[in-house]
Amino acid sequence: MRGVEYRGLSRIEGPVIVTRRSRNVGFNEVVAVYDRDEGRRLGRVVDLSEDWAAIQIFGTNTGLSAGESRVEFLGRPMELRVGPGLLGRVFNGLGEPIDGYGEIASSIRQDVNGLPINPYARAYPRDFIQTGISAIDGMNTLIRGQKLPIFSGSGLPHNKLAAQIVRQAAILGAGDSSGGKPAEPFVVIFCAMGVKYDVARFFLDDFERSGVLANVVVFLSLADAPSLERLVAPRCALTAAEYLAYGRGMHVLVVMTDMTNYCEALREVSSVRGEVPSRKGYPGYLYSDLASLYERAGKIAGSSGSITQIPILTMPNDDISHPIPDLSGYITEGQIVLDRELTQRGVYPPVAGLPSLSRLMKDGIGEGMTREDHKDVSSQLFAAYSKVKSVRNLASIIGEEELSDSDKRYLKFGEIFEQQFLTQGEAENRSIARTLDLGWKVLARLPREDLLRINKTYIEKYLDPFAGGDAPGSAAPGNRTPGGAA
Fold first, then answer.
1. Domain 5-77, CATH number (from 3.40.50.2000, 2.40.290.10, 3.30.710.10, 2.40.10.170)
2. Contact 159/309 with Cβ under 8 angstroms?
3. Full-prediction pTM beyond 0.85?
C-alpha cells in the first residue's frame, strides 16, 4: 500500500540502498529515507525485483543505519513546481530554489520525466534564429525547435560562446534580414551540471550584467553535488521549458552544460548498480538516455511555443569519436565544433568550418527568411575553406614557396576568412545581412571563375560592390531588402 513505511535496510552501497519493496512501486518513484536522528532525505527508485527495491539517495549515506533507518515510498514520481514565477529564479539540480526567495507561488506540479510527444503532432522546424555570430548564422544556421550541440574541449571558450548566444539570440520576423527589432524574443533555461562554482558565477554575472536575467531560469548542479542530482537537473530544466513553451506559448532556448559531466554521472550510477558496461565503461543505454533529453526539443502543431536546445559537451582528449559526442551527433540535427588550433591563433569564436553542420539549415534560409543568396554564399564558403585546408596540408609538406599562384591565393583567402568572417568580438552582434556581406567580401578575393557554387545572377547583383575586397559603399547588399531593391 502507498505510504507504508519499512524499517531497516538490506544493504547500503554508497549512495544506493536496498530495502523491501512496497506493492505498486514504480521506477523513478520518489522515496523518503529517515535516519536514526529522524533526518529526512529524498531518493529515487532506480531498480526493482519481485521483493526488493534499489533506491539512490540525493546526497550521502552519512547517518544511515541498516537496522534503524526507515523508508517511505511516496507513490509519485519526482515533480517540479512550475508557474509564471519561474522566470528570473535560480534553482538547484533538484528544482529547489536557492536564490533566497522561497518557492514560487503556484500549485502546478509536473513530472520531471516529461510526457511523450506524438511524432505526428510535431511541426517541422523552419524559423531562422539569429544568434549574431557569423560562423553560426552564415554557415551552420540555428532553426527554432532544433537541437544543435556545441562540441568543445577542455580550455576552449564554449562558456563564453554560450553566454553570447543567450544574450543575442532572437527570432526575426518574416523577411527581416536587416537586423532590426526582433519579432519574437526568447526566454532562456540555463542548466549547469557538474560545473565548478566559478563557471556558474560567470554565467549568473553575465546574465545579470546584460539584463537578460529576468528572462532566464537557472538550474545549478555544481561539481560537489551528488551524482544523481546531475541526472535530475536537465530533466527539471526541460520540464520548466515545456511548461513555458506549451503552457505559456513562449519560445524557449535551453542551454545545457556540460553533457559530459551528465554522462560521467550516468556511468558512475550504472557502476554502483552493477550493470554490464559498454563502450569505455558507459552503460549500454547511454544512447536512449541522451535521446530522452534531446528529443524533448521541438515544436508541436497548434502550439505557439517552441523549445530549442543547445547542449554543450567537452570531448575527452578532443576526440569527436568518443561515445558522448558520437551518440549525441546521431540524435541531434548537427553540431557546432570548436577548434583548438583556431583558438591558438586568436580566432574567436573558434568554430571549425568543416566538421560543423546544421542539418535543418536548408529549410530555414533563403528569400523571405534570411536572404536569397544565403544558401549559395554558405556553400561557396564551405567549398573554398575546404580547399584552404588541402592547400595548408600541401604547404606543410613542400613549403609555401613551392605552391602555385592559385594555391597561394587560397592560403591568403583562408587567413582573411578566419580574421574577418569567423573572428568577432564577444559583444559584437552581427545581423544576418552583415554576415552575408562579409561572406561576399572575403569571396571577392577569389577569381570569379572559382565561384562555381553561386548563381551568376547573385554574383552580378552582390559581388560588384566588393570587387578587390574593398568595403562596400552606399549600394552594399546590407542596404538592400531581401528582394534586392535598394
1. 2.40.10.170
2. no
3. yes
